[in-house]
C-alpha cells in the first residue's frame, strides 16, 4: 500500500504459502474492488475473498497490518462486498440452496469487533430450497502434495429413502478458480431434478494458499483427475447415492477433466457433457488467445516468440485427454461456442470426430454468437435442457 503522508510503499499482507484448515489463506479475488471499499477514517479496507470453499468478507487493518474475517457462518455460504459508505456495508449473501440476498451491516467502533457485526436483510430472509448441502474435506497423499482439499455436495430431498439418487460429478475450469459455496444455477437445477451433485475444489484451486495453486502446473491430467476420483469414492460411502449411475460434466478445463475422467475410467460413467473442452493442448497452442496457459500448465516455460517444438508438442500431448481416446466408451455431449477464442471450437470438434470414428455415441451442439462461457440466455438454457435430456437417456 502507498502511504501518501510519508510517500512510501508498505507491505500490509504478504503471500500466504500454506494455511491451516481455518487460517487466512491469502487474498484470492476474481474481480476488482468496489469503487467504495474504505472505512470513513481510511484505515480499514473491506473486501471479499475466497477462503477455502467459501467467499468471505474481510477487513484489512492497514495500521496493525492484520486481516480479520467479518463473516464465518458455514450455513450462510458465501458473501460478496458491493459498497461501503459512512461505515455502512452493503453486501450480498448466498448459499448453494439460497439465492443471493442483499444485507447491510455497520462497522463497529472497535476493529476487533468486526466478526460480531449484526447483518440485516433488506427484505425478509429467503427460506432455503428443499435440498441439503455440505462441505467435505479430503486428504490424499500422493507424494506430490499432501494438502487437504474440499468438495461441495448438494443432496436432493429424497422422500423415498429406498431410492438412491444418481451422482453428477461437476468439474470447475481454470484450473485456478474454484466452486464457492454460493447459488449456482446448473448444480441447483440438477439437484432439484433428483441428482446428487459433487463439486470438487481439487488441488490447484484458489482459496487454499499459494502452494496449493502452484502444486498443479506440470501435473494437470493426473493430480486434478485423481483428486476428483478420490473425492467420488469418498462420497460414495453415502448409502443414499447410486454408485452405479454416475455422470460427468464440466466446461473449459472442467471439460478437459471430464474427458480425462471418461478416458481414464471408461467403465465408470453413464454419460458425460462438456462445454468448450480442452481436448488436445498440442493442437490448441497455435490457435488460442492464451498460449501461455498451454505451456505453463504442462510444466513448460513460455516464450511468445517460440513455435511448437517437438519437445513442447510431446509435453502438451502427454497431458491431454485425447491420448485416452481409444479407451473411451462413455456417451458424450459436446457444447461449443462458435466465437470462442479461449478454447477454439476445433478442440471439441476434434473430439467429436474421434468419437464418431470409434462409434461412441456423441452429440455436438454449436451456438452461434457465443464465446467461451456460453452464457447468453438462449444458449445457457438450451445447454441445460440438453444436458438433462442426455443424462436421462443414458441411465
Describe this structure in words.
The chain is built from nine helices and 17 strands. With about 400 residues, the protein is of the alpha/beta class. The strands form four sheets. It has an eight-stranded mixed β-sheet with strand order 10-11-13-12-14-15-16-17, sandwiched between helices. It has a four-stranded antiparallel β-sheet with strand order 6-7-8-9, with no helix packed on it. Strands 3-4-5 form a three-stranded antiparallel β-sheet, with no helix packed on it. Helix 8 links the parallel strand 16 and strand 17. It is globular.
Strand content: 25-35%
Rg over CA atoms, rounded to whole Å, is: 22 Å
Mass-distribution shape: globular
- Total beta strand runs: 17
Query: Structural class of the helix and strand makeup?
Result: alpha/beta
Summary of the model, kept short:
The protein is α/β, with parallel strands linked by helices and 395 residues long.
Keywords:
alpha/beta, 17 strands, 395 residues, four-stranded antiparallel beta sheet, eight-stranded mixed beta sheet, 9 helices
